[in-house]
Sequence to fold (352 residues):
Amino acid sequence: MTRSATFRSLHDPDLTDGYLRMVGDGDEYGATELAYALLDDGVPAQRVMVDLIGGTQARVGELWAGNEWSVAREHAATAVNERVLAAIAVRAQAGTRRGAPTRGRITLACVDGEWHGLPARILAELLRMDGWRVDFLGASVPGPHLITHLHQTGPDAVALSCMIPTRLPRAHAAITACRAAGVPVIAGGRGFGPGGRYAERLGADAWATTAEEAVDRLASDWPPPASPEFPTDYLGDEEYTHLARSRPQLIETAMSRLAAAYPAVHHYDEQQLESTLEDFGHIADFLAASLYIGEPRIFTDFTTWTAGVLIARQVPASALRIGLRLVRDQLIDFPRATETLDRGLASLPATD
Fold:
């Protein structure tokens, strides 16, 4: 592969595969050189950030899910992507000789418990290039600390990122607190659902499905007209509250019953048992988020994805099916929970 690249090359498998190999090998300098070469050939920095870095990060996640990359390699690749993004941002800022921000000040944070910070970081750089002063607070920002920052800085907007639906209850708390502080909120990330529809239910003033869409939305009609109050009577209802409070006992009971229902667990080593414990935690958390929002799809998407991840690791779908039933057996007095679990069971492959 030559250093020379054109805009169209961003969609060239030779280039994107080469960049993926570099980040996968931890080759920070080679990856940065490739990104610089694209800038030298006239590729806009936004395209390098979104298409090359963002697109590669999505592939990194797919490789982990398919059991082709380890967690360690995935983390190392993410770290390289973050460093390349920072280098591109500095180069782009130096090239524009930009003066003071022209659009206003925005606080950007990942909701409490959300550790996927790279998508939010890409948005932060795109907003800076569009004339915003950005306070990027990073991953997993506790709600009280976010509100303290708002009172100290008085931004014109808050952008909240949520990539995993299990963080939606905390996202709701953050959105409610930001609006109470008088700061409008734009929400983004896969965790807010297709088209950002869960963001609307949680009271966000606006939402975007991509970083570039968020930039456009903030540039066109901000602040937006006051959004109508969305009915939230079902949020945090009795079933959700019971599940959230009984989570430790629910997981412990399921683990204690697993060996009788799935004898293969007798041969698990310590690491496999730890992973199984984490899987039960994920079942409880995605079920809780589904109940909180009133959207079974959150849970069925999770079960379908999890089945694929487990099969890639040579764990049969029957193991997940048994796990779901062990949780269901403990929630028979809660109709929405059992109905959602039944939908999850129906989403699994019929055979291993």
Remarks:
- Residues 1-5 have pLDDT under 50 and may be disordered.
- The two ends are 42 Å apart (CA to CA).
- The first strand starts at residue 104 and ends at 111.
